[in-house]
Specification:
It comes from Primorskyibacter sedentarius. The protein has 382 residues and is an alpha+beta fold. It has three domains: 21-93 and 230-274, Sulfite Reductase Hemoprotein,Domain 2 (Sulfite Reductase Hemoprotein, domain 2); 106-216, no CATH class; 292-380, 2-Layer Sandwich (Sulfite Reductase Hemoprotein, domain 1), CATH 3.30.413. It is built from nine helices and 20 strands. The strands form four sheets. A five-stranded antiparallel sheet has the order 1-2-5-4-13. Strands 3-14-15-12-11 form a five-stranded antiparallel sheet. The chain has a five-stranded mixed sheet with strand order 6-7-8-9-10, with helices on one face.
Amino acid sequence: MSVPSANPQIKGWCPGAHRPMMSGDGLVVRVRPFRAELDRDQTLGLCALAQRFGNGTLDLTSRANLQIRGVAGEDHAALLAELDGLGLIDSDPRVEGHRNILIDPDWRHGDLTDRLYGAVLATLPDLPDLPEKMGIALDAGRGAHLRAGSADFRFEISDEGGLILRADGAARGRPVSEDTAMDALREMAAWFISTGGRDHGRMARHLAQVALPGDWQVIAPCSAAAEFTIGPANGGSILGAAFGKIDAAALSVLMQETGAPALRLMLGRMFWLRGGTAPCLTQEFVHSPDDPILRAHACPGAPYCPQATVATRQIAGRLAAQVSGSLHVSGCAKGCAFPRAADVTLVGREGAFDLVLNGAPWEEPSQGGLTPAQITNLEEVI
């Protein structure tokens, strides 16, 4: 058996439905539900597909998408046909690969956010060939809820209530109207490509090297709103998924027992049951906003990812209560589960862990070569 490299391969793209990614347990097939919402039939259907074609679980990603893991190569075409029948994928693989759209979870049918989403869908085929990790945030609701989400082009609201388009990494944006928003998006995407943005991959990294036009940096977005939290919410309930792992059978039972007509996916690896009765307290989901597991992040790790050299989630679950801030246990230096700085980061390398304090997985560790036994008590290590 080969040992994964200490320098993991960064593919520059994320798995999709048409273009899955091979992992240690089979293909990873990512589903990007339109408007981050699944109705009851779509939810139950997707749960059934995860059990039929995958390993019985769904991964809720950091961008509020869902992944079916463990799919056999010979089953991919049949799975695609089923997903298409549920209305969960694009017919055009190129569009599907670039449909990284974050949407305010409190959107309402016919509101500005909903209308912008439809406009973005119509505009995607016209945009230049952007790096597949790039995304768009539609944070144009009654509060700014997507600041922590990974996006490169951000539609937001100013303190005066006007719509702006802000490049990620810039403090201010350019004023737009609903009628001019898509033209502004096309212009910014074209600028990114023409100024060498593909070499940097993401907008914020590009802006660290290339100056954005001054007239695109004139209005600041409004202050971030209070975050959504687990518990009752607008006639429904918000629940969490530890490390984003959802047991498909348990979710199916949850939808049937609560009678919820729809489910919305959220940042923070949370999901919102829209209506229905209050869910029963079960260990399959996170029911308390104070649960320390919500501050912990971990990828599937070994043996599920071929680039990981360590198991991750069991360790993260054991250590979560020991860290007052954020904890990230990463199978390798890519940091897929939380690609940013955490208060405490443990990075797998050649079967052991490097410790990074107040940093990202790819940054210089303060200690290296720690075994799982050595990190049972973090106070003794930090």
